Amino acid sequence: MSNKELHALLKLIDSLELSEFKMKEGEFSLSVRTKHYVPTNSSHHAPIVAPMTAMPAPAPVAAPAVSAPDAIAEAVVTESTEDESKYLAVKSPMVGTFYRSPSPDKPVYIKIGDSISSGDTVCIIEAMKLFNEVEAEVTGKIVKVLVEDAQPVEYDQVLFLVDPNA
């Protein structure tokens, strides 16, 4: 499944206000729990299987179920009394694992105080064993990093705050 198809699927799941979505196609499986998910006492949940057509079989990958509210609660590190409404957000374009640098032995792409321009690479998000560079869509100075390195992120989650006036 390509990133574009995964992105479209996640948008569809969000628009339908599903609580849980499971899909299995050959060795590929996907499990998503949304903010509407309510755990039950039942230990068995029947998967929702979505048929897919004309797609090559992806490498075997099992995506863990991620509860959106829990992942967002872990990632938000804002305890500041400063007004953050004046800042622009750099958001995650997909679900995956956030990395600040291209590899563990390399320096981070950006840090607090760095100036960025639209199109600059700000981080990497790993999704299904693919490393996707995230480019800034805004110009300004990084004022806050909201996610820890190697943490899971959700689609549209704020990763960085940028001061456009700096």
Largest sheet, strands/sense/barrel: 4 strands, antiparallel
CATH superfamily of the largest domain: RNA polymerase II/Efflux pump adaptor protein, barrel-sandwich hybrid domain
What best-fitting shape do the alpha-carbon axes yield?
globular
Strand content: 25-35%
- Count of domains: 2
Short description:
This protein is α+β, with helices and mostly antiparallel strands and 166 residues long. 13% of the residues lie in helices and 31% in strands. It is globular and about 45 Å long.
Record keyword descriptors for this entry:
alpha+beta; 166 residues; 2 helices; 2 domains; OB fold (Dihydrolipoamide Acetyltransferase, E2P); 11 strands; single chain; globular; four-stranded antiparallel beta sheet
Helices and strands in order:
Elements: H1 3-15, E1 20-25, E2 28-33, E3 61-62, H2 68-75, E4 88-91, E5 96-99, E6 115-116, E7 121-127, E8 130-135, E9 140-145, E10 151-153, E11 158-163
Parallel strand pairs: 2-3
Antiparallel strand pairs: 1-2, 4-11, 5-7, 5-10, 6-9, 7-8, 9-11
Explain the overall architecture.
- By secondary structure, the chain is an alpha+beta fold.
- The protein folds into two domains: 3-65, no CATH class; 77-163, OB fold (Dihydrolipoamide Acetyltransferase, E2P) (Beta Barrel), CATH 2.40.50.100.
- The chain has helices at residues 3-15, 68-75, and strands spanning 20-25, 28-33, 61-62, 88-91, 96-99, 115-116, 121-127, 130-135, 140-145, 151-153, 158-163.
